[in-house]
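Question:
Now give any protein.
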Amino acid sequence: MRFINPKIESAFKRIFCSSESKPILISFLNAMIYDGNPTIADLEIIDPYLASRVPYLKDSYLDVKARLAGGATVIIEMQVLNVASFAKRVVYNAAKTYSTQLIRGQGYFKLKPVIALTITDFEMFDNDKEVISHFVFKEKKRLFDYVDPEIELIFIELPKFNKQLDELETLTDKWIYFMKNAPSLEIVPSTMETVSEIQQAFAIANETNLNPEELADLEEREMFILDQQGVLLKGIEKGIAQGREQGIAEGREEGVALGMREKALEIARQLLNVLDNQTISQTTGLSVEDIQNLREE
């Protein structure tokens, strides 16, 4: 058997957002958010592409969005490319989801918590070795909560997870292993067979369930992402080289930024005739205004 890569957007949605995915998503969220405890008993998977109620706010494209039984919303994003300002985008998406719950005239008491769960295929926090990071509003010195958590940010950094199959102990371990390693497996590992929801996820991810067109589309998307990772890496290398040549203390940082921006602009120019401004912005990390300026050149 071969399994599709859950780190690719359309594969992620197929596994976690299809009509039969509710128990899979419940198990996954309990593992990622609640340490494997069965805190979430039910949820509703919602269309992640619904437009904002506020016309002038940017659209944000999330992989999966779910409303929990108590009313809280979980927004889930799988991010493979470490694009510019990604950390700000996570906060923006969470804040927008929270703020657009109300319509005119409704009281603030109707606001429900928002949990932004982000899985990254790169390291977000270089100075920390933990795989999972969980952020809430706290008093800066005494570290008590600002009322009950209304917005939570949770990050799963896949490159930091290095456990092997015989080291998997918790439900959290098994789901993270699935996310990171499914494409390299040929059978469902025996250590994961005891979790029925993970077995279901493997069944959906089995390539035999896809028609040739769907499989070709997934492969094309994966190749595109690999290409962009290579471009970003070259941009960083070019920026470092430019910084060194400048011979000043801040040259390295400025050179990296310059190199990454130039490469992002180069990618964006190639995509102008293929994608809309919003999608190009999400792919490259450039602002929508930057993309529009390229169209007007």
